[in-house]
Structures are given as structure tokens and as C-alpha cells.
Amino acid sequence: MNSPTSLTLPAPAKLNRMLHIVGRRNDGYHELQTLFQFLDDGDTLHFRLREDESIFLSPQLAGVSAEDNLILRAARLLQASVDRPLPGVEITLDKKLPMGGGLGGGSSNAATTLLALDHLWQLGLDTNQLAMLGLSLGADVPVFVRGFAAWGEGVGERLVPAALDTPWFVVIHPGISVSTAGVFGHPQLTRDTPLISMSRALQGGHNDCEAVVRRLEPEIGEVIDLLRQYGPAMLTGTGACVFCPLESETSALELEREILYGIARHAYPDRWSVFRARGCNISPLHQALNRLQVSSDTGVS
Ligand SMILES: C[C@](O)(CO)[C@H](O)COP(=O)(O)OP(=O)(O)OC[C@H]1O[C@@H](n2ccc(N)nc2=O)[C@H](O)[C@@H]1O
Ligand SMILES: Nc1ncnc2c1ncn2[C@@H]1O[C@H](COP(=O)(O)OP(=O)(O)OP(=O)(O)O)[C@@H](O)[C@H]1O
């Protein structure tokens, strides 16, 4: 079988369908209980092996230096974990997800890079090894590496598959960036929510970051209140995005249009953006990798 030299893969968004903060570790990181689910929408990454050993990424992201970009950090981390020379790679990012939006875009980019390069470089690392590498890049990377909707504990690295409902969602990004470290470091953050079981969480939970985020950015509170007129809306992660589950694509489309209309006639700030997407319990990244596997097993391309 010829090994592939290029690959295009999705880097989907995630939602935290609930997020309880149950403690704080000695290193300052917080212990969470959360339900992670993927959206069938997000960024796309293209990878093409090079003749030399250089790793390139384009385009640059505004406000993120090359050394900080999680895509390059993931590629270099993987390269350094292997004791032999590897070909370089040209990576192109088609960015759609807002940064600092609580949709995990940077973490998802990192996970897609780890899985894509494991494939192209034919390293054969298992998911545990890739998730461990990913965790050193960010607390949200492991769930994207593993690719199943999950009940997450610890800092979100202890993951058990969770069978969540898969509604349509309308997601509003209020055009404000919320610092994850700023929310977790806030003196008024609730950090002692009692532990619950996954089955209890599946019946409904809340996001402990909401009160602090409302205080830091009252406009995000307004977005939550607006969407709660349509369903059980919630903040994802530390925000700024707010999502509202809806029972059909038609209801999601209607609400999306209503918000767009409100933005157009200046009822809402024009820095807001809105999109609709479907929740999925297998990550679109893993769906794409499984299709690759099937086509290489059957010789179909
Ligand atoms: C809020 C969530 O998105 C929920 O899924 C994640 O817990 C955040 O994950 P992430 O963006 O990958 O976060 P990281 O890049 O690892 O951490 C950013 C900063 O947030 C704080 N942080 C993050 C995660 C966590 N469980 N406790 C924390 O206190 C730390 O100050 C850390 O320096
Ligand atoms: N490839 C990347 N894409 C997006 N952000 C990146 C990337 N590389 C580094 N970053 C940095 O990571 C920060 C967080 O980005 P990300 O898109 O993951 O935020 P988020 O959606 O709030 O994530 P989370 O829910 O994990 O807090 C950005 O503000 C940016 O500075």
C-alpha cells in the first residue's frame, strides 16, 4: 500500500453541555465534572508532507505567535517524541471557529494535528499516547484526540463515553473574548459544587463559570437571557459562546434567522455572530479517519 503524502481533516468544535467545578488542585488547575459533545462544524486543516524537515503553517492567526500556535506546538511535540528523522509538513488552516469562544478551537486544531501527523508519518502511536501528549498542550485536547462524547473528570482528561441526546444547536458568539485563566482565577468562582454521577448529569446540570462570566462581561449574560427564551441555553466552557439546544433543524434555522435579522436591524450588536450545528457523539474528525481506514482496507479511495 502506498502511504499518503497529504491529508485534509476537520477540527470540530466542542460544547460543554454542563460544567461543574468541584475542586482546585495544588497546581492551581481546577477539578471539573463536564459533559463534552462535538458539533458537526469547525475548522479544517490540510497537511502535505515536504521533502525537507521543516514544518510550516499558514495563514498566521492574528494575535497568536508561531511559537504559541497549538498546531505548530502539536506538530513539534510529536516530531520530538520520535527518535528518527521525519519529513517536514506544510499545514494550511481554514479557521472558522472564534478564538477564546469556549468552543475549544485551538485544542481541536492541536488534536487534529496529532492524529493527522501520526497517520502521515506512520508512527502508529495509540490513542492513549496521543491523548497524553495532547494533555501537555491543553486540558481540552484529550477529548478531541479520543473523539467520543464524554463525561469528563479531573481537568477533563478522565473520559468515559456518554450517550448524549444530539439536538440541533444555535450558537451565538458575542464577539467578546473571555480569558479562560481569568475566569478560573476569579476570586468569586464557585469551586465546591458537590460531585454528582454521570447519569444525574445527563438529566441536566449548569455551568459554574456563568456567574463570574456575567460579572466580567454583562453582555454575555444578556445573550444567555435572550437564548433562554427559546430553550435551556448555556455558556460553553468559560465562554464567550452561548448555545441553545433545539429539537429540529427547522427550529434552529428559524432562531438563527431571527438573531441574524436582529443583528441586521441593529437590535443586537453587529459584532455578534451566530451559527447552527448538530451535536454529535462521534467526532467528525474520527468519522473522517474511520472513512480513511475503510477506504485503505478495501482499496477504495
Ligand atoms: C473550560 C474548558 O474549556 C472546559 O472544557 C477547559 O477546562 C479549558 O481547557 P483549555 O482551554 O485547554 O485550558 P488550558 O489551556 O489547559 O488552561 C488555561 C488556563 O485555565 C486555567 N484552568 C484550565 C483548566 C482547568 N481545569 N483549570 C484551570 O484552572 C489555568 O489557569 C490554565 O492556565
Ligand atoms: N490554532 C489555534 N487556534 C485557536 N487558538 C489558538 C491556536 N493556537 C493557539 N491559540 C490560542 O489559544 C487560545 C484559546 O483558543 P481556543 O480557540 O481553543 O479558545 P476556546 O474556544 O476558548 O477554548 P477553551 O474552551 O478550550 O477555553 C486563543 O485565544 C489563542 O491565543
Report on this model:
It is a single chain. With 301 residues, this protein is of the alpha+beta class. The protein has one domain: 2-Layer Sandwich (Ribosomal Protein S5, domain 2). It is built from 10 helices and 10 strands. Strands 1, 2, 3, 4, 5, 6, 7, 8, 9 and 10 form a 10-stranded mixed β-sheet that branches. Helix 1 (70-80) runs parallel beside helix 2 (105-120) and helix 7 (210-216) packs across helix 8 (218-227). The longest helix is centred in the middle third of the chain and has 16 residues, at 105-120. The radius of gyration is 19 Å and the shape is globular. The two termini are 12 Å apart. The model has no long low-confidence stretch (mean pLDDT 95). The chain binds 4-diphosphocytidyl-2-C-methyl-D-erythritol and adenosine-5'-triphosphate.
Topology:
Elements: E1 6-24, E2 30-49, E3 55-58, H1 70-80, E4 89-94, H2 105-120, H3 127-135, H4 141-146, E5 150-154, E6 158-161, E7 168-173, H5 180-184, H6 198-202, H7 210-216, H8 218-227, E8 234-235, E9 242-246, H9 249-264, E10 273-280, H10 284-298
Helix pairs in contact: 1-2, 7-8
Bound molecules: 4-diphosphocytidyl-2-C-methyl-D-erythritol and adenosine-5'-triphosphate.
